[in-house]
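Morning run. Coffee first, then this:
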Amino acid sequence: MRQVLLAASVGLLVTLFGTPVAIRALVRQGYGQLIRDDGPTSHHTKRGTPTMGGGVIILATLLAYLLAHLITLSDPTVSGLLVLFLMTGLGLVGFLDDYIKVAKQRSLGLGPWAKLIGQMVVAVTFAVLALNFPDGNGYTPASTEISFIRDTGLGLGAVLFVVWAYVMISGTSNGLNLTDGLDGLATGTSVMVFASYVLIGIWQFGQNCGFAAAGKCYEVRDPLDLAVVAAAVMGACFGFLWWNASPAKIFMGDTGSLALGGALAGIAILTRTQLLLVLLGGLFALITLSVIVQVGFFKLTGRRVFRMAPLQHHFELVGWGEVTIVIRFWIIAGLLVALGLGVFYAEWVTGT
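And here it is:
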């Protein structure tokens, strides 16, 4: 438990006091956000706001995880390191995307194929490694079964698992990327979702099959260390939110959104809560669904369901204020997180 508290505290302090340093450095380099011409006109005032702030979140998370283990004299685990690898790798892909945007002064960075290949390389490497490194109880970081709150018994085999993991990682990272359209929206929602995984990891640790009674225990390799990673990310997002809340002094950019989405998917895979992530990260799912519906309906009928997708921009064009949208979406995200945690606990209580 000390590791969890230390990771959250260090992550918070590093981004809270380190982000202003990053803001000044990014301003000196002229790394400002470009705004889409077809987006809401109110966003044009944000042009030039420093971007790539997600790098601060990544560095804070890595430092928080390292210090939590150094201070408590505990060893890192394979599961924790794998999630950090996934987060950092996707953050690098996002950084390249952001850098090209600001260097070439265009709203689109990496080409779609280059971005896809970058995400695929990182995700596939993570998935392959996660099926190795069994512990003393024979548990590897990931299992080849599809999971909801625990493994469902529906096995995929190694190859299909790698494909499934890629779909999950790509979908979650891109979903978080789509959510990152208003000041503080993605950051605040991430705080709530990662906080839920802190609770899940701690609970799974207390009821782990390595030392708890069989039957209702959890077959997760390193649940406590996954809670430490989640706490580090949660704390880092909390500190970053101080500067990212409206009016934002800095944006996380693709550097942050892809990294956070990857970390979230990685934790869900390794805690055996893959499908539960649809509830816990329900706001990300809803916003992604709004884009899918908009594009699909337009291709079929030539008409639009929403004034603009993703969903948050539809409400902007309807006339809602940005802060109003963010707060109301945070409420929705919090309710979905509470629902997900309720389902998680209900499964334990009922034993079904």
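Residues 1 and 322 are 38 Å apart (CA to CA). Good start to the day.
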